[in-house]
Design goal:
Blueprint lengths: L2 H12 L4 H7 L13 H6 L25 H12 L14 H13 L3 H13 L5 H14 L5 H9 L15 H19 L7 H7 L5 H13 L4 H12 L8 H4 L37
Helix pairs in contact: 4-5, 6-7, 7-9, 8-9, 9-10, 9-11, 10-11, 11-12
Length: about 290
């Protein structure tokens, strides 16, 4: 938390107090070793200037997970583009999605070296920095580079650590870990048709006890089939590794929302038209 905001908020409260009472709060009770601030100090707060790194055009904060140099700078800029933050004044008024796609194109042109740097950055990222880890996996996914299959497989098949927030009812580290792995599994599914290295992990993950990982693995493994005969062969292979109670996931199909029939809608809605009254609503009998 920014101490400047805390100091100003506290100072604003103290501004409503009488000066005499404020002077009393500035004294140092002998039994209290904590040094209390005077009213002026509270109002002044923390005078140190802070930088809002969420503003477009603000220089990126120090990121040591990527090496120095043009490619490292490109990856640092991409991490900011993922959350819609520009890294220079020219991006200030640029559409965030266009900036993101342009950053992806620049990374794809760099080839396998980008995959290596992303893998190293993931290994160096703190375990509890879940969004950062997810963002690195998402970048690996968006590269559409078969060279990323080994790294994605390592992430997807890694053991899920024990719950870190057992006493926090609103947060679960296991849920965070599952989101990261599901993203990695879906990325493997997209690469399965291009890389044989992506198919073996998918077959292994199809037996996962976590249904989110399992569903993504099954879907990706089946989608990599080049023909209906191959799909049937893959389905039979999946039946041998999936418990009977979950084999319905093999035949589960997704439907493109655009292909779902929609009810006919009028070209114009006439809001003034009302339904005919259905009579007075029942009233309670006041005489009892």
């Amino acid at each position: 938390m920014n101490t400047a905001w805390l100091g100003l908020a506290f100072g604003a409260c103290c501004a409503c107090l009488p000066l005499g009472l404020m002077a009393q709060t500035a004294r140092h009770p002998p039994e209290n070793p904590i040094e209390l601030k005077t009213g002026k100090e509270l109002l002044r707060g923390d005078a140190r200037e802070t930088t809002d790194t969420a503003r477009p055009g603000t220089p990126a904060a120090t990121d040591t997970t990527f090496p120095r140099g043009p490619l490292g700078d490109l990856l640092r800029a991409h991490m900011l583009a993922m959350v819609g933050v520009g890294t220079d004044a020219q991006q200030k008024y640029q559409d965030a999605e266009n900036a993101y796609q342009a950053s992806l194109r620049a990374l794809r042109e760099k080839g396998p070296e980008v995959v290596k740097l992303l893998a190293n950055a993931y290994a160096r990222t703190p375990v509890d920095d879940y969004f950062r880890r997810w963002a690195l996996v998402e970048t690996l996914r968006e590269l559409h580079n078969p060279e990323a299959a080994a790294t994605l497989a390592s992430i997807a098949t890694s053991a899920i650590p024990a719950e870190r927030y057992k006493n926090d009812a609103e947060r679960s580290s296991i849920d965070e870990e599952l989101q990261i792995r599901v993203n990695a599994v879906e990325a493997l599914g997209e690469l399965a048709g291009k890389s044989k290295a992506a198919e073996s992990p998918l077959l292994e993950l199809a037996g996962s006890p976590h249904i989110g990982i399992q569903r993504a693995a099954i879907r990706g493994y089946l989608a990599a089939a080049a023909a209906p005969e191959e799909r049937r062969s893959r389905a039979a292979r999946l039946e041998r590794v999936i418990p009977a109670e979950r084999r319905s996931l093999i035949s589960l199909e997704t439907t493109d929302v655009k292909s779902v029939p929609h009810p006919a809608m009028p070209e114009k809605f006439e809001i003034d038209k009302r339904r005919k009254p259905e009579g007075e609503p029942p009233r309670a009998n006041p005489k009892r």
